[in-house]
């Protein structure tokens, strides 16, 4: 179950890297505007906010990936697990904030939060049973 949690966390990290690319590099492009439902003018006005948020998503992915690496390749697996919980837990918390604060963005919140939720559950259960 621990390995399943780490795999799910890795998938969540990959998703957040993809979101980073959308927010930092494609925000004003047709693909980015379509993904986030913004007009060309809205995308231009909010470009700096998206840039900042994109890096936030990248940093969560990095913390999670470092945690996975430490958990798998070190005698300090507990440190790695803590980093995975911090990264994936923050992804989940951000998705929950989006879900509760923007009813029109609930589908995006569920997309963004499902993998971290499953990762946290699987890792938690796996560690509890270990």
UniProtKB/TrEMBL annotation:
The chain crosses the membrane at residues 6-27, 54-73, 79-102, 109-129. Keywords: Membrane, Transmembrane, Transmembrane helix. PANTHER family: BLL0914 PROTEIN. This is Membrane protein. It comes from Microbacterium nanhaiense.
